[in-house]
Design a protein that fits this description.
Two copies of one chain form a homodimer. The first copy, chain A, is built from 13 helices and ten strands. Chain A starts with 6 loop residues before the first helix and ends in a 12-residue tail after the last strand. The first copy, chain A, has helices at about 5-15, 30-35, 55-65, 65-70, 80-90, 105-115, 125-140, 150-170, 185-195, 210-220, 240-250, 260-270, 280-290; strands spanning about 25, 40-45, 75, 95-100, 120-125, 145, 175-180, 200-205, 250-255, 300-305.
């Protein structure tokens, strides 16, 4: 797709991917509502296939290719959830996934891709090496590159989480998501704009990876002043496509400290009894930080994933 | 109710309690199915109100009382999930819950009851002190005692988890649950007997609290040879009512080691992305231990609860 997804695009995307993904539940907790002073509806994408919302966008991007393109294989560079999303999608259409990963990527990430039948191509841990290696695969195999977020098919896929959330939770005053590269936030903002135009879309971002808030204000893709956060899914900068959508349809970005992220993560584990990764806790941390602003409202939050190393918990 | 619950009793129970409890989701995982060599459907009672299936039985017992009985209050002795279940049920009907707890009960358990408006009465940490204190409350307040498991209304309530599981997962060859006092296992066995009589009901029990397997074989209520298990929800012995139902409708009890419980618990956390307490992992540990016996079958497992101290994880 070479345009900002329309409502029809997103609806068709949802139909296309629905048999390949989980319709994840929406959970809530009286104790959390009381503590937060508002009604919070958590969309549990940690319970999604591969343990993250990325399954949606990757699946849509691959399913949207022609049969000929699919047969030549898919490639991407990622050491995170997008790698598994592409491996899953390639497996679903019976083709190969060539996943470029830095040679220092954790075994658990490599195993996740291998389990899904993906082929891992290791490279030096620099962005340049990643891009060169992917380009080589494109040239040699004719594989199609699927960018993890700066891609309208991916954005349309991520939008389907908010589509389901709105259907499951009913009227919402605010919808919140974290922001890394901005694929999920863009999709969420579009879904809200089409289905619930009066709802505000607000993002959470770590103080230790505060690039999106600067880009949001300046209109240019900016880097974070410094990088130091447990929310390792949110280290990426925005792309031109996600920046444009976010500047148009997102109301605000709230930054939160490491302590606020860990406290919010622990609350979700304790009260909702689910495993979420630190990145998932960022928008809830933002809600708790500025809870006066949300008093009495109905808030939807997209919990992005649950891929966390149980041997390295922050509590 | 003064008889073993019939199918109609259980159906009426389900209608009675349904607006007060969560219809919890059933989750599954391709990775777990592949590892186990069968299809496993996990009924997530860790996502139930109060974080445990006990909400079902407690709610039914309290809702089944007359208005006059309800007004005089409810009492029980428990330092576990049943205490919160009774506090929740009392709150639902607008009456008082008098919860007798040993004076060494953890603060987190006391706070759970207080949060729900229950009144805690502390006593010495002996069974005798607990029973004397409860009797005093019955005499003084006219409150009704609700036993945590040896009570047909409670058993009918616990049966509703399996009723939902069968509805959600479809045809099952085996249904598994842990066994402590046997309330859940009794209810599960009755539900299976009425709705899916060809399914086998099999329990898991810790080797370090192996009383039910002895009672199951001898027909008398027996104690465990020794007590040493992380599955602190399964320390209780059976009662006469649960023993009778279990002897009639349960196929088998499988015991598992501490290492097997912890490994199964970790697998659930990692693959299903949910928080379960050690007791919940016991039937899944039993399945993994004897997986040849379950090869290719469709297995339902009731995950009983998610109330675990995140500061004291075994991994």
């Amino acid at each position: 797709m070479n345009h900002i997804p329309t409502f029809d695009d997103i609806r068709e995307t949802h139909e296309r991917i629905s048999i390949y993904i989980n319709k994840t539940p929406v959970l809530s907790s009286d104790a959390i509502n009381e503590l937060a002073g508002c009604y919070v509806f958590f969309k549990c994408e940690n319970l999604q296939k591969i343990g993250a919302f990325k399954a949606r966008g990757g699946m849509n991007a691959v399913l949207s290719l022609s049969k000929e393109e699919q047969q030549k294989g898919i490639t991407t560079h990622s050491s995170g959830n997008h790698a598994q999303a592409i491996a899953l999608a390639a497996k679903a259409v019976g083709t190969k996934a060539y996943i470029v990963m830095p040679n220092n990527a954790p075994e658990i990430k490599k195993n996740g891709v291998k389990y899904l039948g993906g082929e891992i191509i290791e490279c030096e841990p620099t962005l340049e090496a990643r891009e060169t290696t992917v380009q080589k695969i494109i040239d040699e195999k004719g594989a199609t590159f699927v960018h993890p977020f700066n891609n309208y098919d991916v954005i349309a896929g991520q939008a389907t989480a908010a589509i389901e959330l709105i259907e499951q939770a009913g009227e919402l005053n605010v919808i919140m998501a974290p922001v890394g590269g901005g694929g999920l936030l863009s999709g969420t903002a579009l879904a809200a704009h089409y289905l619930m135009p009066n709802a505000e879309v607000i993002a959470g971002e770590p103080e230790g990876a505060a690039d999106a808030i600067r880009s949001f204000k300046s209109g240019k893709i900016e880097k974070a002043p410094y990088i130091k956060t447990i929310a390792d899914g949110l280290l990426t900068n925005l792309g031109d496509k996600t920046l444009e959508i976010i500047r148009t349809y997102v109301k605000d970005i709230i930054t939160v400290s490491e302590e606020e992220i860990i406290a919010a993560m622990r609350l979700v584990w304790e009260q909702l009894k689910i495993v979420i990764e630190p990145s998932s806790a960022v928008p809830f941390a933002a809600l708790l930080k500025e809870n006066q602003r949300f008093a009495g409202k109905r808030i939807g939050i997209i919990l992005t994933g649950g891929n966390v190393d149980l041997g390295k918990l922050p509590f």
